[in-house]
Design goal:
heterodimer, A: 812 residues, alpha+beta, Aldehyde Oxidoreductase, domain 4, Aldehyde Oxidoreductase, domain 3, eight-stranded mixed β-sheet, five-stranded mixed β-sheet, 22 helices, 29 strands, 23% strand, globular, B: 148 residues, Alpha-D-Glucose-1,6-Bisphosphate, Chain A, domain 4, seven-stranded antiparallel β-sheet
């Protein structure tokens, strides 16, 4: 473990350790037994004595003044405990913290709408009742009177003079305006043989966790504690939002999470609901539970960022990309609940996998009368990388080159690693050409290219799309200082505790608050290797409880960080426990602590071969402590907080925004029916590289999940609003989520390029960067080559494709 | 959503107009009327049962006669809510002589529906609204026994 003394926290190359026993093993997930047998512990499984239920009245208007809300009839309904409206919330709470710069940070956001509603679905009143059905019935008895005012649904429209202003206190709809400028984009334009221009649109969709948001709050009058059981995925990160809003001391808020049915980012910004349900619990004097419905989730939880791009790409005729000039309009909906973080997070992966040095981005983030956005698997990078991967294909088409050729020409080379990007990102190793070559082989690319030509002659349209995308993980919160230097966040940190009890039992607690990713499994593998035991002998606490688990306020499941951050913290805690255990063992064995190793449940003296079991060390440490070395404190437990070595943005906003940069290459073969615009996937292949893998089975599950999510986004999932600002897809009948029937067989392969900076050479995995969205867009355009159809949208809706075909046919 | 229509009625304009501005007469043509509360000549509240597909429930609609130029023109606005939804309706009616002693009635309606009904029943909403509104005017026409 000397290795760790030196520098997990420095950006120096690490020497690999000896091969470990459990790391790299596809151990079956410890969590699955309880989850598959119905024993999972979700928020809705918790029933507290005296518990009541909440239901929420929501705005039917996209933008309207609230003229009055009369709850008297609802309060008279038998079984109703209490009600709450926005005007009361404004008196009881402070507006939520904002992380924008002035004037956007003047925005007043409460857990219920105050004075005005800003999107259809916004909460305006709440009812607590003895049963959930009574609470929902009571909503029907609330008389809410509104006066509709003009709304705006398009980011560019929202910028025009005279456009409706969503939040008057901000003065306009602009949240953030910034310019990133590296190299010399104008010189690149002059050097270019050609400048390729394109307008692109990335659509709105979200993640669809199997479990919606859920909060159960209990205010304990005896202890003064507010106990919050929720499935928030950054429960301690949201403490400032909850504590300041409620004006309630942070050291008496207990946050508990259990099993969670997926988060994917959507459960990061559930703090308005935590505050609302807490207020209701305080008002009613009862524990109050609220379980979000699917329609509430789809229409008002959070959507992914919608983004429009105007792209200019200076290129040489041989396919060399000289730079990228982009204007982006990001539509963040009606509130900034995690924004404007998304306005900078794309810059984790500024050039994608490519070597060009000249880059300019003018970025505008704008509010509209739609559901607020929030982090969503591949948050902000996905939109940016889609734009880049789409652009590369457009360049190839315009130059008459094969898209693989353009990629291979422009990829960052493996020998250039660690590679510093124009915006200061430090890529921690990877071999993009190898990844692409492997995926081409997996899908049998050149055979399909030949077949495509032959089949076209018969009128059959085959399309082949490829995409190589970065999947950055473990963010540096210093990135939010770009949008507001005053933001009190930077770096990243995570906590872990390891104890060996008096009977030798090893217990582990982490701050990572899992959402279904298998943290109990990976942590037990990491710890088992440290102590030379089996993962079965390591118990990892399920879920998260701020009264039990160690945590930092950056703890949580987000940014593909848990394997890396959790392992960093676990290795630190293991080191501390092992150092002490080694001293105790050495004392008993009369050996040198430096020569003690941990093998097969024992501390072994390397020199003499003598050993004592872990349980005996635990026994001495806790209950037989007269045998301890002189002066040593009893106990065998350690907490460690680990942080990567991160910096702050410089004056040009250069910053390494994440620690690890996994990547994936995807290849899709599709067949298009030009008579309907509908297409099917014939073959799909993926090569992923997330560094050293702790558990290849979990990694593969993540790769599959991210691919299914991306395929869903590309082909099915789309949040569309009608002209009145009503969401047209607020149930699973209209918001189509792919099932096992829609997701094709995925042919996958892994590479393992160890991270140059992260512990054990591992890299984060899980988000997947939305790779299928570009692979499929590229395949659709490729299939439609005979028609010359250009794909500028990330959502491949058959109706739209058909319209594009018809338009081209008319011109033909 | 915009709807409009024209039909002729074999009755004099004045008679037609009187029916059109009489809350009791109009409300009888509303689908599944549950309750009517006439506040004045210009204002009344109707509770109707309506919905799209499986989402059905009571809507409380407050009607106001905002323009009245007997016997040629009337404008009625309604605002209401129910089952997590809101409805804003604006109807304009223009009457003219059809030449044969009858009346030509030209109507248009502008409806805005928000909330659960709009969101969940989006695909069915327009046809359902068209059905309800058309039925209402056909019912008014039929009150005079004939028409085309």
């Amino acid at each position: 473990m000397r290795l760790h003394k030196k520098g997990l926290s420095t950006l120096t190359k690490l020497v690999r350790e000896e091969p470990a026993l459990w790391m790299g093993h596809p151990l079956k997930r410890k969590e699955d037994r309880r989850l598959l047998t119905g024993l999972g512990k979700f928020v809705d499984d918790i029933k507290l004595p005296g518990m009541a239920y909440a239901a929420i009245l929501r705005s039917p208007y996209a933008h309207a003044r609230i003229l009055g809300i009369d709850v008297s009839k609802a309060e008279r309904l038998e079984g109703v405990v209490c009600t709450l409206v926005g005007e009361e919330v404004a008196k009881l709470t402070d507006p939520f913290l904002q992380i924008s710069s002035p004037p956007a940070n003047k925005l007043k956001d409460y857990c219920l709408a105050v004075g005005k509603v800003h999107f259809a679905g916004e909460p305006v009143a709440a009812v607590v009742a003895e049963t959930r059905s009574t609470a929902e019935d009571a909503l029907e008895l609330i008389d809410a009177e509104y006066e509709a005012v003009d709304h705006v649904l398009d980011a560019k429209e929202a910028l025009k003079p005279g456009a409706p202003v969503i939040h008057e206190e901000v003065g306009s709809n602009v949240v953030f305006r910034g310019k990133w400028d590296y190299g010399d984009i104008n010189a690149a334009m002059k050097q270019a043989d050609k400048v390729v221009k394109k307008t692109l649109h990335f659509h709105r969709f979200s993640s669809t966790p199997i479990e919606n948001n859920a909060v159960l709050a209990q205010y304990d009058k005896a202890t003064g504690f507010l106990n919050v059981y929720s499935n928030n995925q950054m429960p301690m990160f949201c403490i400032p939002w909850v504590s300041f809003a409620l004006k309630f001391p942070s050291n008496r808020i207990r946050m508990v999470t259990g099993d969670v049915g997926g988060g994917f980012g959507t459960k990061i910004i559930s703090y308005p609901y935590i505050v609302l349900i807490s207020l209701l619990a305080m008002r009613s004097g009862r524990p109050v539970k609220w379980i979000e419905t699917r329609t509430e989730h789809l229409s008002a939880a959070n959507h992914g960022n919608e983004r429009m791009f105007e792209v200019e790409i200076p290129v040489k005729n041989d396919g060399t990309i000289l730079g990228l000039k982009v204007k982006a309009w990001d539509d963040c909906g009606a509130y900034t609940r995690y924004e404007p973080a998304g306005a900078t997070i794309w810059a984790q992966v500024t050039p994608g996998c490519y070597r060009f040095k000249n880059f300019q981005m003018e970025f505008l983030q704008v509010m509209t009368s739609k559901c607020p956005v929030g982090p969503n698997r591949g948050y902000s990078r996905m939109q940016h990388l889609w734009m880049i991967e789409r652009s590369v294909d457009i360049v190839a088409r315009e130059l008459g080159l094969d898209p693989t050729e353009v990629r291979l020409k422009n990829f960052i080379r493996p020998e250039e690693m660690p590679y510093v990007t124009p915006s200061g990102g430090v890529y921690d190793g990877g071999n993009y050409p190898e990844s692409l070559s492997r995926v081409l082989k997996l899908i049998d690319y050149w055979r399909w290219r030949k077949e495509q030509v032959e089949e076209r002659k018969k009128g059959r349209l085959i399309g082949i799309g490829i995409s190589t995308i970065l999947d950055s993980g473990t963010n540096n919160f210093g990135q939010v200082k770009i949008t507001n230097p005053e933001n009190p966040f930077s770096g990243n940190s995570e906590g872990a505790r390891i104890s060996i009890d008096g009977l030798g039992g090893i217990q582990v607690a982490l701050g990572t608050s899992p959402q279904g990713q298998g943290h109990e499994t990976f942590a037990s593998q990491v710890v088992a290797d440290e102590f030379g035991v089996s993962p079965d002998q390591v118990t990892v606490l399920m879920g998260f409880d701020s009264a039990v688990n160690p945590y930092s306020h950056q703890s949580g499941a987000y940014a593909s960080r848990c394997a890396v951050m959790g392992t960093g913290a676990l290795l630190g805690a293991a080191k501390k426990v092992k150092e002490k255990a080694a001293k105790i063992a050495a004392h008993v064995l009369k050996a040198d602590p430096e020569s003690i190793e941990f093998k097969e449940g024992h501390a072994v003296d390397r020199d003499s071969g003598r050993k004592i079991p872990l349980w005996q060390i635990g026994n001495i440490a806790w209950v037989n402590n007269v045998l301890l070395p002189e002066g040593m404190e009893p106990g065998l437990v350690a907490i460690h907080f680990w942080r990567p070595d991160f910096g702050l943005p410089d004056e040009k906003w250069r910053l390494n925004q994440t620690l690890t940069y996994s990547y994936q290459s995807h290849a899709a073969v599709i067949e298009m029916d030009p008579e309907t615009g509908k297409f099917k996937i014939l073959k799909y292949a993926i090569v992923d590289d997330c560094g050293k893998q702790i558990n290849p089975m979990i990694v593969e599950g993540q790769v599959h999940g991210a691919a299914a999510h991306g395929i869903g986004a590309a082909m099915y999932e789309n949040f569309e609003y009608d002209e009145d600002g009503q969401l047209k897809s607020s149930t699973l009948v209209d918001y189509l989520v792919p099932t096992a029937l829609e997701v094709p067989d995925l042919v996958t392969e892994s590479m393992e390029t160890p991270s140059l900076f992260a512990p054990k050479g591992i890299k984060g995995v899980g988000e997947g960067g939305g790779t299928p969205i570009s692979a499929i867009a590229n395949a659709v355009e490729d299939a439609l080559t005979p028609y010359g159809v250009e794909i500028s949208d990330s959502h491949q809706n058959p109706q739209r494709i058909y319209e594009l075909i018809v338009k081209k046919r008319k011109k033909m | 959503m915009h709807f409009d229509g024209t039909f002729s009625i074999r009755a004099p304009r004045k008679d037609v107009f009187d029916v059109l501005i009489d809350p009791k007469q109009i409300s009888r043509c509303m689908p599944d009327l549950q309750k009517l509360d006439v506040k004045s000549k210009e204002e009344f509240t109707a509770v109707v049962r309506a919905g799209v597909s499986f989402i059905k429930g009571d809507f409380t609609l407050n009607f106001r006669l905002v323009e009245s130029e007997p016997p040629t023109h009337a404008k009625l606005v309604a605002r209401g809510s129910g089952i997590g939804s809101a409805v804003d309706l604006e109807t304009t009616i223009d009457l003219s002589d059809s030449g044969d002693g009858g009346t030509l009635m030209k109507w248009q309606a502008e409806a805005k529906v928000g909330g659960r009904i709009a969101s969940v029943g989006q695909r069915l909403l327009s046809s359902q609204a068209q059905k309800i509104i058309t039925q209402l005017f056909e019912c008014l026409r039929d009150k005079f026994g004939t028409g085309s």
